[in-house]
Every structure is written in C-alpha cells, then in structure tokens.
Design brief:
The protein is an alpha+beta fold and 335 residues long. Helix 3 packs antiparallel against helix 4 and helix 5 runs parallel beside helix 6. It is elongated, with a radius of gyration of 39 Å.
Length: 335
C-alpha cells in the first residue's frame, strides 16, 4: 500500500529551500567574490546592489511559488466542494471526485473518503429499493391471497345465517360477518398506503377550487350516508370559494377516507357535519360518534389516518383531529 504524502510537509520542504538558500548563496558569494584581499573584485556598493537584487529575486520567486501552490490547492478544494455541494436527485448521487492515487495527500484522502461514502449511499439506496419492491409485492400477493379465504368464510356465514339458529347464534354470525368486512377493509387500506408511499400514485399538484371539490365529494357520498341512516348537515358556500395548490385526485381521496371513517367508526352517532370555511381557508368534517378513544378507531383507522397524513403533508397541508365522547372533528388547512 502506498504511503500517503503530507501536503503540509510538501509545502514546508519546498519553501524551506528558499529560507535556507539565501544565506548559503551569500556565504559562497562572499567567500569567492568578497571585497577583502589585495585586489577586491567588487566594491562595497556593488556588493550591496548584488545582494539586494539577489534577495529581490528570491522573494519574488518565493511569492510566485507560494501563489502557485495555494492556487492549485484552492482549485482542488473548489472541485471537491462542488462535488460535495451537488444535490442528489431521485435517480443518482453526485459524481465521484477524481483523485490521483500516486499522490494521495490529505485532499486526495478526503476525496477518497467522499467517493467511498457515495458508493455506500448508492448501495444503500439500491438495497432499499429492492426491499421496498419486495415488500410491495409481498403485501400485494398477501392481500390477493387472503381475499379468497375471506370470500369463502363470508359464503359459509351467509349459508349458516339461513339455517335455524338461536338469537345468540345469529348475533355471533353477524359479528363474524362484520369482522370479515373489517379485515378486508384493513387489507385495502394497507395496500393503498403501500402503493402510495412507493410512488405508484402519481402526484400532480395544480390550483384547485376547494369549494367545488368538496361539493362534488359530498354529492357522491350523500346516498351512502342516507343508506346508513346518517344525517348530513352541510355548510358549503355556493358563491365564495378558495384555491389550494393540490392534486384534485389526492384531495378527493383524503375526503373519501374521512367520510369512510365516519361510516365505519361513527355511524352510531347518525350525524355528520361538513363545512368549508372560506375566510380561514379550512375544511371541517365532524361526527357525533363515541370518539376515537371509545370506538373502533383503534382497531382500523390507523392505516387510513396514516394515508391521510401522508397525502396532506405531501401537498403541504395538515389535518387536526379533536376527539371526545361527543364525537370527532377534523380540520384540514394549510401548514
């Protein structure tokens, strides 16, 4: 292995010659061309001028060599700084720094460490992408494989419900059927969250009319609320509105998840309030369920809420949840 060279030692070695050279030159010059002796070759004034000229040349050479040394040093450091300051993209990391292995001073060693770090980060990203792809395929296959036994179980539950059975048995079958439905919904939420975080859902932000989007979403869900006996109270101004830079499909998905949570976990309250606050640019969804601490939220809303938070954070929005025994309210606004 080649022994690394010290840049500072190289600098001292080079400039030490200019510090030691003037006395030696003067000593030799005085010995052979001095003013002493029967016939001095130079008088004192000429020797003084020669000494001044020699010192001037040495100082100029010293300054020029120092400037050249530090100019090359600054050039190498700037090249290294540019490589380290380059922002990584989604597909690649900064380019490695070109180093000279036959020199290997402190700057080359720093460049080598930077190149090793780049290689390690590239390997880490590649492994992360492979693991993410494997996890995504595993969840997709698991979700698909589990649907078949759930469908079979639901078929047997439906057949048993048609047989003579005690009220306790019918209640147990209804609970089993509800559990199967909730398990299927959880698998759908897990698959959706996995696809979302892996970038399978394209994100296309644009200036979006939020009043119009909320009205369209409420109109689509109104029959579903009526089917479950949920009273819908809306406050959606028809003339006034506001705009957010958001993906309309993502915002619709956020509202769908909120409305779905009302039906899944707060249908017992038989009420939902949906409003658009134009002045403060907020969206409000509230229900009269048992609250997140006393309902089935803990058993199934976690993945759906994670999806909501992820989408809103990507769009630079936020959701504030307030829950009590009298119900749960969600306020969506800017960060």
């Amino acid at each position: 292995m080649k022994q690394p060279r010290s840049l500072f030692r190289h600098f001292l070695k080079l400039h030490f010659l200019f510090i030691l050279l003037p006395p030696l030159v003067l000593l030799v010059f005085s010995s052979f061309f001095g003013t002493s002796g029967p016939e001095p070759k130079f008088n004192t004034l000429s020797l003084f001028y020669i000494t001044v000229l020699m010192f001037t040349c040495i100082i100029v050479a010293f300054v020029a060599l120092s400037w050249l040394f530090f100019w090359r040093l600054r050039k190498r450091l700037n090249r290294l700084q540019e490589a380290m300051s380059a922002a990584p993209t989604a597909d690649s990391w900064p380019e490695p720094v070109l180093i000279q292995k036959d020199r290997m001073d402190e700057i080359d060693q720093l460049g080598g460490s930077f190149n090793r770090m780049i290689r390690q980060l590239e390997d880490s990203r590649r492994r992360e992408q492979e693991e993410a792809g494997l996890r995504q395929r595993l969840i997709a296959n698991m979700s698909h494989d589990l649907r078949t036994p759930l469908t079979i179980m639901r078929g047997h539950v439906t057949r048993l419900s048609q047989e003579p059975m005690s009220p306790e048995g019918q209640s147990s079958l209804a609970e089993i059927n509800q559990t199967i439905t909730r398990t299927g919904e959880l698998m759908d939420d897990l698959l959706s969250y996995t696809l979302l975080t892996s970038g399978k859902y394209p994100f296309k932000p644009a200036s979006t009319d939020m009043g119009r989007l909320v009205r369209a979403s409420v109109a689509a869900w109104y029959p579903v609320f009526e089917e479950h006996g949920i009273q819908v109270d809306v406050d959606l101004p028809a003339e006034e509105t506001f705009h957010w830079t958001a993906d309309p499909k993502w915002m619709t998905r956020v509202l769908d998840n909120l409305f779905q949570n009302v039906i899944r976990h707060a249908a017992g309250g038989r009420y939902v309030y949906i409003a658009v606050d134009v002045q403060q640019e907020r969206i409000l969804v509230a229900d009269r369920g048992q609250g997140m601490d006393h309902s089935t939220y803990d058993g199934g809303a976690g993945m759906g809420l994670s999806t909501i938070h992820y989408m809103l954070n990507t769009m630079k929005l936020k959701a504030e949840f307030n829950s009590s025994e009298e119900g749960t309210s969600v306020v969506i606004g800017r960060v």
